[in-house]
C-alpha cells in the first residue's frame, strides 16, 4: 500500500457517525468508543483463575492533537494517552481503562485516583488472587478494602500516604 493510499484511507476512517452523537455519551473518546469496547470485551473474555496479577499505568504513544494527552516523565515514551491496565504474570492484558481526567468513570473515588483504579480493575479477578502494584496506587485504606474483598495485595507504600 502506498503512503498516499494509506493517508486517504486514514482520512476517511470513522468508527461512529459523527453527525449522530448520542447526547448522554460523556466519554471523551466517543469517536473511537466502539473500537475501545471491542478490544476491552476481547480482553475481558480471557479466562481468569486464582493467581498473580499486576496493575500499572501504560502510555500509548501519541503526539497528535488530543486534549487527553499526558506527559509522564521517566517513561520510555513520556507523551501519549495514559492507560491503566491489569495484566497476568506473562503480560497479557485482562482489562484496561483509558484515563480521561476527572471524567474517568470510576465508581468510588473516596480513597483517591490510584485506589479507585485498583478497585475498578480488580472487579474481574477471582477472590484469593494476589495483586501487585507500585507506589502510585498503594495506600493503607486500599489494602484494607482489598483484604475485605478477599484479594491479597503487595505494593510499595509511601510515608505520606
TrEMBL record:
InterPro entries: PGBD. Pfam families: DDE_Tnp_1_7. It comes from the Eukaryota. This is PiggyBac transposable element-derived protein 3. It comes from Schizaphis graminum (Green bug aphid). Transmembrane segments: none annotated. Residues 1-161 form the PiggyBac transposable element-derived protein domain.
Amino acid at each position: 500500500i502506498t503512503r498516499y493510499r494509506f493517508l486517504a484511507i486514514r482520512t476517511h476512517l470513522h468508527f461512529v457517525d459523527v453527525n449522530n452523537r448520542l447526547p448522554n455519551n460523556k466519554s471523551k473518546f466517543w469517536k473511537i468508543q466502539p473500537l475501545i469496547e471491542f478490544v476491552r470485551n476481547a480482553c475481558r473474555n480471557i479466562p481468569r483463575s486464582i493467581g498473580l496479577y499486576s496493575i500499572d499505568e501504560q502510555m500509548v504513544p501519541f503526539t497528535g492533537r488530543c486534549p487527553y494527552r499526558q506527559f509522564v516523565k521517566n517513561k520510555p515514551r513520556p507523551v501519549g494517552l495514559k492507560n491503566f491496565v491489569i495484566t497476568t504474570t506473562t503480560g497479557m492484558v485482562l482489562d484496561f481503562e483509558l484515563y480521561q481526567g476527572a471524567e474517568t468513570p470510576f465508581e468510588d473515588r473516596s480513597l483517591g485516583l490510584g485506589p479507585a483504579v485498583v478497585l475498578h480493575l480488580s472487579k474481574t479477578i477471582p477472590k484469593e488472587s494476589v495483586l501487585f502494584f507500585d507506589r502510585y496506587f498503594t495506600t493503607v485504606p486500599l489494602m484494607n478494602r482489598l483484604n475485605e474483598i478477599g484479594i491479597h495485595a503487595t505494593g510499595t507504600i509511601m510515608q505520606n500516604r
